[in-house]
Every structure is written in C-alpha cells, then in structure tokens.
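From the shared-data thread, chain only:
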Amino acid sequence: MNRETPGAVPPIREGGTLAGAGRPQTPFLSQVIHEYVDYNGHMSEAYYVLIFGHATDAFYDHVGLDHAYREQHRISIYTVEAHIRYLIEAHDGDALHIATHVLGYDSKRLRLHHTMRRGTDTLAVTELMLLHVDKTALRATPFHPEPLARIAAIAAAQASAPPPEPATSRHWGA
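Structure, as tokens:
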C-alpha cells in the first residue's frame, strides 16, 4: 500500500500478508496525529474515512487484490456505498486498531465491515459495498479464483463470530 497523505504518518503496522491469506488478517493499526484533529479537539470525520480506507487497502493486499494484481489484470475495486457510525471521539495520539469482517460477497461484490477501536472502546464502525471492476470495459467483472477463494475462506472463518456492530439501521446485502 503506497497511499501518501500530506502531513500524515504511515500506519504503525499493516494487517496480514498473503502468507496468511485465508485466515482473518491481524488488525490494521494506525494512530491519530495532530493534523487529524479538528477545532472540536477530536479527529475530524474525514480522517476516519482515510484510516478506514487504508484498512480496506490492507485487506485487499491480504487477499491478493494488491497493486500487482490490479495492474496485471487491469481491474480495480470501487466503493459504491459506505456507511459510518461515529460512536466515541478519537483524540491526538490515540492508537487505533481496525478489525475487518467480511459481511458478504458474491462473484463481483464484496461487503466489508471495519471496527475502529482504542483499547476495548469501539470508536467507529463502517460498512462498505465494494465492486470488482474491469478498468478497460468500465464494467463489473468477476473476481479471479485465487482472491475469491481467500475471501471465501475468511468469511467461513468468521461465520461463527458474533456479528459486528451495524454501521447503519437499514439492511443492505450482497
């Protein structure tokens, strides 16, 4: 993952590697830096989205939808819907742990949930509907077998876990 943000510090540690693909990835870790803090003294909503975006990219890398895959196959993954619930304020210097849960998937879509925690406190949650897109045709296209198998294995491993806190009160499925 090579996403650069002016004034931003890199994540402390990115979750998972392909060596662990098929297993749920380790939490994505980041930190609130001073530039993320707004006039209310807590992290601005834009930076929740940024950190959740980095966690999504780390998940892509974990399942093999990394930069090399996207370039080789001329595909991308587009976010077509996102919902966030802000539950507790994050402050300058807070260490953040983002856990990812696969809520659903099919041949072209992936529904992810991220939980942002500081210690045991849940600060925010997000649900994302993601679409696997052929960049040449600009149309949805099926995942290749290897990343789809990794997504399926993670979903199966997480199936017995309690469902994560909803990011929306409206039901939407994959």
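The CA atoms of residues 54 and 137 lie 26 Å apart.
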